[in-house]
What we know:
CATH superfamily: Metal-dependent hydrolases
Structural class: alpha/beta
CATH architecture: Alpha-Beta Barrel
Strand order of the largest sheet: 1-2-3-4-5-6-7-8
Bound molecules: nickel (II) ion
Number of helices: 10
Amino acid sequence: MIDTHCHIYLEQFENDLSEVLYRASEVGVEQVLMPAINFDSLPKMDRLAHQQIEFHKMAGIHPTEINDGASTTEEELLEYCSQPDIIAVGETGLDYYWSSEYKEKQKESLRLHCKVAKALDKPIVLHNRESTDDLLDIIEEEQDGTLSGVWHCFNGSVEEGKRALDLGLYLGIGGVLTFKNAGVDETVAQLPIEKMILETDAPYLSPEPNRGKRNEPAFVKYTAEKLGEVLNSSFEEIDQVTSSNARHLFGLSL
Ligand code: NI
């Protein structure tokens, strides 16, 4: 399996990192993709190593960091993201949950990330919280046929999901799929698995049966199991198709 969105480099894993990675490897996680929160994330990612698990880095500035005053220039973001070991631009996106004061700044940052992603022909990783229309409007403006990416932690409606697919995005399916009454299962059942990839967003958004606890890459299996239930497919098929999708989107080797 490939955990396509995991903040394994954060301090929440400092004390038991080797146990966490052992459990991930035991359930069959072979690759872990790491979105940045800001540029300080990158040296932390560089410290990770494991015999059975491949780690891949992304570079970008999370929208909530923009609220806290973080910013980047086109030159700086280009420089980070052009490094050959950076597989994607992100995470970026919009988040209106905490505050609506920084909407314009977040939009500006998202546009910049889109521009760099297109210039470097690398996919973009999109965070979205209470900002779906604005997010998809910007992707529509920026989509010139060369932009690819993922709406990470997808929790939109069927219509919003279809609009994202039409815009060339994949849907990142995470622990929210397993939450009772969230309705993501019913939505996802109506969307094509050919455009879905699996993720944890660890340490956040832990799936059932570990909801509310720290999330970790091994828990991607609970989301894969649930997706199998929802789409009436076997675990193996879910793993095979979503992993192939992830390799295609992020240009990963086998
Ligand atoms: Ni994230």
